[in-house]
Amino acid sequence: xxxxxxxxxxxxxxxxxxxVGMATLAAALVVQLRRQVRAAWAETGRVHATxxxxxxxxxxxxxxxxxxxxxxxxxxxxxxxxxELTGFRRRDLRSGLSLADVLDLAGDDVRREFExxxxxxxxxxxxxxxxxxxxxxxPVSIRMTPIAERERSAGWRCLVEPVAxxxxxxxxxxxxxxxxxxxxxxxxxxxxxxAAIGRALAGIGRQVGADRCYHYAVSADDRHLESFSQxxxxxxxxMSGDRLLPGLDHYAWTLERLRxxxxxxxxxxxxxPADAVPEGExxxxxxxxxxxxxxxxxxxxxxGIVGCETLGRVRTWGIGDRQLLEAIAQICQxxxxxxxxxxxxDEANERASDLVDLLPEPVAIVDxxxxxxxxxxxxxxxxxxxxxxxxGADASATLDEVLPGAGAWFAGKAEGECVxxxxxxxxxxxxxxxxxxxxxxxxxxxxxxxTRVKQEECxxxxxxxxxxxxxxxxxxxxxxxxxxxxxxxxxxxxxxMVSGLAQELDASVGDGLTAAGELLERTSExxxxxxxxxxxxxxxxxxxxxSRSSSALIVGNLQRAADLISGMRQAAVDQQVxxxxxxxxLRSYLGDMLASLAPRLRERHIDITFDCPDDLEIExxxxxxxxxxxxxxxxALQHGFEGMLVGEIRINAGRDGDRLVIDxxxxxxxMTSEQLERMYDxxxxxxxxxxxxxxxxxxxxxxxxxxxxxxxxxxxxxxFRIELPLTSEVRRHAHG
Length: 736
Fold this sequence. Notes:
Layout: H1 6-61, E1 65-70, E2 75-78, H2 80-86, H3 91-94, H4 99-102, H5 108-114, E3 124-131, E4 137-149, E5 152-162, H6 171-186, H7 193-208, E6 212-218, E7 224-232, E8 244-246, H8 252-261, E9 264-266, H9 279-285, E10 288-298, E11 301-311, H10 319-358, E12 363-366, E13 372-375, H11 377-383, H12 387-390, H13 395-402, H14 406-413, E14 419-425, E15 429-437, E16 443-449, H15 451-532, H16 537-576, E17 582-585, H17 586-596, H18 598-603, E18 606-611, E19 617-620, H19 622-640, E20 647-656, E21 659-666, H20 673-677, H21 692-703, E22 707-712, E23 718-725, H22 728-735
Parallel strand pairs: 18-20
Antiparallel strand pairs: 1-2, 1-5, 3-4, 4-5, 6-7, 6-11, 7-8, 9-10, 10-11, 12-13, 12-16, 14-15, 15-16, 17-19, 20-21, 21-23, 22-23
Helix pairs in contact: 6-7, 6-10, 7-10, 13-14, 15-16, 16-17, 16-19, 19-21
């Protein structure tokens, strides 16, 4: 670059630099201005949203019905009271809820009021009907205020007041309203029942067209009527001094009507005679023209009132109105009684807390959260911890500190039924801890020093153990004695059996010898006749007859002797081998045993019959079964038929399911009631040792695992029923 060219190019460069700087500065100013505008719009939006939220919240707090529309008659705002009146929901606004949906615009005057020119900005009042979501129509009075934007109407802001109509309350309306009220109470917690009563009074007031509905309770001293809940119709100013009224004694005429008629209905207060109704003047001074009152009763005593009133207009109360008020009176009575009971319960709890500290027994009270709320002086002395150190502390942790192991136990028992447990403390002291839950989820914890009781229990336990050892020794000795007696009785039974068998054998052998001798003699005679050649045909035939009869007699007696010897051998084996169970064919076994006793029975002229199925078997100890039946027979011989010339014994055996049933009956002398009670006792009796039935009972119930029952009456014989398990498996199952 030459020096001559510098002055020519310098001014355009400066101008370019200056232009770029100005453009940059202008862009920065535009960006800053945009940020400020956006911030202003955001702040305006926040202020608008806050104002809108405040407006909505304030609108929901008031009981008047409010709504707003735009210039196209579309609803843009509704408050809580509007939705309660119409049944529409807030989300219905988003679907374009119009004025025609909620108001009856059929009349030209109503439609014209909402379509008047913008320049008329005054407040207007008109009558119409609100169309509810369920199809109901409510007569209302509407106060309309135009919403102005930029000197033109942008919609309407409306205040709606229901207007009472003089119509009779129908049973259907009463039933529907009571259903709504009861559902409201069922879904409302007890601590919010006062608000539910207020809603119920409002519903009744709208239904019957009243200006005021109220619920008063008689004070504790009966000197005043205290306001429980009240409702005023829209546009009606509350009365002064309506929160506290004079007691029922100041309303003598009203009280008398309530007691006689149950409900007081006054359609026109002005018609009441002043001299007969002193309270009428008070009603007239308050502007009351009609009233309907129902009492709340507790037994025969009136404890409150529920009523409806109209101000400035006469109202004729119908049957439906009375039924509705009586129904709400019953609901209010239950709520009032519950509140009275809760108050008394609180007072009782306070008195109980004072009494707990005076109790001589150690007691603590734990609340629903598991915290210690009471700890009396007796407990403080017992565990050396006073209330100030444990108040509000966790009950489980505190119990573990004063009684190791009690905390975990208490945590599992605090919400159960009344329980108790023992804990050993300090090695030589016993404490009993008892927990009794209360209805309010609190619980009472009771401590009891039972050291002396436990020490006495230990002494009693030691004495009981010594006594049990002594009894066991005595039982062992008694069992040994019983075994010796059973062995002696067994030997006696065997001796008796052998004696009987010997007699039977002697008779059989004697008959056989007689038959054999006669046969030998006739044979000798025939042999001589044959040798001499004098034998005749008739003589030979006589010999054959005698030979046949004698041979049959000899064979029969020998077979009988063989059977007796076989039965004696089996019985002897069964008697010697104890507790050896084997299958027993009952018919043959008992038949052989009864055959061995036949000589003794014939001596006493006793007939015996035995009936048993051929296929009946039992798995048991043969010796025990033998002794049971033989002892019953010998007991009948020795005692049952004593002093009798003849008798009869019947034995029947059969199956009943998995058990053997043996019925033993005799037609002997029987037993008296006293003898029947002591028949199994081991006592000496005439004619024997007195152990027969005792041994029978022991064998049946212990050895054979069965049962035995007896029926007897003096002069009518005796019967025994024995039931035994057929198999050892059934016997073990029964014992198990």
